[in-house]
Design brief:
mainly alpha; 3-stranded antiparallel β-sheet; 14 helices; 6 strands
Length: 325
């Protein structure tokens, strides 16, 4: 419907060629009359009677104040809160905290996309930034701080990103980290490779080794992305890292440190999540049952794990053994 009741006022809106005209009234009849006037003006190519906007109220909505409002309304307490805050900080660094939200244009969006791509960000990363920015701008439109949504492109992504590190690449990365005094970062990389933990999980796992069987030990990871918790077996080098104590720095420190290593080693197309891909790839290549790999990695859907199935050794040859038995 083009007339709706919002905050005890009747809001009428008409869209034409992507442009939205909107105004609020105290009565439904007034809203109907205004809607008819706008449609008549559009039909006869006449000036459209637009909403008288509250300039003083609109000017208080900067990029920063709008982001804070969106964070409190939608993102606070969510599993993606830290990542979204990091993304929003990047958005504010580019545009400036004080940019008036009412001034956003399609050109502004394209400039940000070009900047991200110019800094080597993948299309998937660009799309995630645009998704956050879209939420922010949609909120601005909903509170009449932005007249209309700019055009928001969606970049084509690869069907899947299956990059993983070889043992030689792993050694090079770990040695470079330790050579620069980034021992904690190196330990985090090892833990991601040997447990498959996501970046967010590295900062919230229980740092007490739990017994598994007679001689094994594992790490308890609460509240994983799929909503489950899991006791993940720990390799000897993971046990040694855990015995040192937890990681002491904040997310921003680790992000910056990893980005400097990534650029130094020219790891184009590789992100921290590549360490997790490496774990999954090695489990499959080692012959672990695909369902057990799914459980270990915490994949909600088996289709995600099946992306690695082609790595299984002699995966089709077992069919011959069955048929000739």
């Amino acid at each position: 419907m083009s007339i709706t009741l919002r905050n005890n006022k009747w809001q009428a809106y008409v869209t034409n060629k992507g442009k939205r005209y909107r105004k609020s009234f105290t009565s439904h009849n007034e809203a109907q009359l205004w809607e008819a006037q706008v449609r008549l003006a559009i039909t006869h190519n006449l000036p459209v009677p637009t909403e008288q906007r509250d300039t003083e109220r609109i000017n208080k909505w900067t990029l920063q104040t709008t982001i804070r409002a969106v964070e409190n309304l939608y993102w606070k307490g969510s599993k993606s809160e830290l990542n979204l805050m990091h993304t929003c900080n990047a958005i504010m660094r580019f545009y400036g905290h004080g940019k008036n939200i009412s001034t956003f244009t399609t050109e502004d969006i394209h400039n940000y996309v070009n900047d991200l791509k110019g800094n080597g960000r993948s299309n998937g990363t660009v799309n995630r930034h645009l998704a956050a920015l879209r939420k922010i701008l949609k909120h601005a439109v909903s509170i009449n701080a932005l007249e209309e949504m700019p055009e928001m492109p969606k970049l084509k992504e690869a069907s899947h990103r299956l990059k993983w590190f070889t043992k030689d690449q792993e050694d090079s990365i770990i040695n470079t980290m330790r050579g620069r005094g980034l021992d904690e970062l190196a330990d985090m990389a090892i833990m991601s490779i040997d447990t498959g933990m996501r970046a967010s999980e590295l900062l919230k796992f229980d740092p007490v080794l739990q017994p598994i069987g007679k001689h094994g030990h594992g790490l308890y990871i609460p509240d994983r992305k799929n909503g489950d918790s899991l006791l993940v077996p720990a390799t000897k080098r993971v046990q040694q890292i855990v015995n040192k104590g937890g990681f002491k720095h904040n997310v921003k420190y680790y992000r910056r440190a990893w980005e400097s290593i990534r650029q130094e080693l020219k790891l184009d197309g590789c992100v921290w999540h590549t360490f997790r891909h490496t774990c999954c790839s090695r489990l499959v290549q080692g012959g672990m049952d695909i369902r057990k790999v799914q459980q270990w990695m915490g994949h909600r859907n088996i289709s995600t794990t099946m992306l690695y199935a082609h790595l299984a050794p002699n995966s089709l040859m077992t069919g011959i053994e069955i048929l000739e038995a």
